[in-house]
Amino acid sequence: MSLNGKNKTARDVILLTIIFLVIELLDELVDGLRGAAWPLIRNDLHLDYVQVGMLLTIPNTVSSLIEPILGIWGDIGQRRQLILGGGVAFAIALLLISLSHNFSLLLAAFVLLYPASGSFVSLSQATLMDIEPKRHEQNMARWALTGSVGNLIGPLVLAFAVALHQSWRSAFFILALLTVLVLGMLWKYQKAIPTASSKIDQPMQGFKDGIHNACLALKRRKVLLWLTLLQFSDLMLDILRGFLALYFVDVVGANNTQASFAVTVWLGVGLVGDFLLIPLLERVRGLDYLRLSTMIILCLYPAFLLAPNINVKLVILGLLGFFNAGWYSILQGKLYTAMPGQSGTVMTLNNLSGLVGGLMPLALGLVAQQYGLQNTMWLLLAAPLALLIGLFDAHKEDVSAEEIQKRIDALMEK
């Protein structure tokens, strides 16, 4: 039964929601496994730092050029095929990684994996937003929680494989098999997947119209606001996580075990925050919580950098991971709400803004090389500062909109 019309059922929504969340879990399992496996991959394939940098940069750049096109296609009637095709490519990429015995084959596998993830995972997220358009923040919170679980379990999959005297290749092969199983589930319920976004009664658009709509969306102030805040928020999310282990080793003077434990604290306590956010959003407005958590982070982060004791730093780090839970899910949910019926285009604009935001780690690396990592870490304060300014602006617009609605309601009563 199609979800494109009134025949949509609660059973379809529940089943698709579960499948899409499993897809996100799988994607973050791969990400967590890959992050933990880098030392083993580097030693096994005899990679130098330049090659590691290429493996992280080239696939991301290629994907950033391809995924905007996939997002527009997803809005004009190709979504079902793109999700299924992306899943097949995702499984093939994982299989190629497990078979890689040199740099070239591994690079090719990553170049396939990144856009495959966009088609398979990002369009699944977009479709999840479409099937329940009034619960964007709540479903994004579930999505973020599932991703956090996957990211935490990923390194455990590698540890389990190593404990059984297997290599990192075996772990990726297992995930390839899991992808095939998930694809089987998705294939069974493929008719329930919308072929396009939720513009139910509008005619099918052409690709040029999709590009035109994306350009128009970029001119909207609210859309630009959420896109900008999403990029700034990443400074206190993935970018901070990327620098954490190096910070504890190079600045704090911790050993590798302590640095790994710090990352685990960050992820583990953040997982608790993601879990508690789901019931919280049923009672509290997302923006109200976001403003409060931003102010708390603005106080906690300088305390983290200034704390002289590693144990104190770990406690504050856990609090940081707890209170920044919800940043991504609420902001991304707001972006979907600002663009009703254009969830695929949301993916397009996220990738375009990501081309700019993707330069931030490189810029921070250059600053760290010149001025030291300790000084560079202070620049991440730009995240809560930008959010406070942007959320204040959004709050004023919300108040104005509520006032206008009240006046309309009053006129209607008269």
UniProtKB/TrEMBL annotation:
Keywords: Membrane, Transmembrane, Transmembrane helix. The chain crosses the membrane at residues 12-30, 50-70, 82-99, 105-123, 143-164, 170-189, 223-247, 259-277, 289-308, 314-331, 352-371. Pfam families: MFS_1. PROSITE patterns: MFS. The keyword Lyase does not apply. GO terms for molecular function: transmembrane transporter activity. It is found in: Cell membrane. Residues 13-399 form the Major facilitator superfamily (MFS) profile domain. Its main location: membrane. The keyword Transmembrane helix applies. It is a multi-pass membrane protein. GO terms for cellular component: plasma membrane. This is MFS transporter.
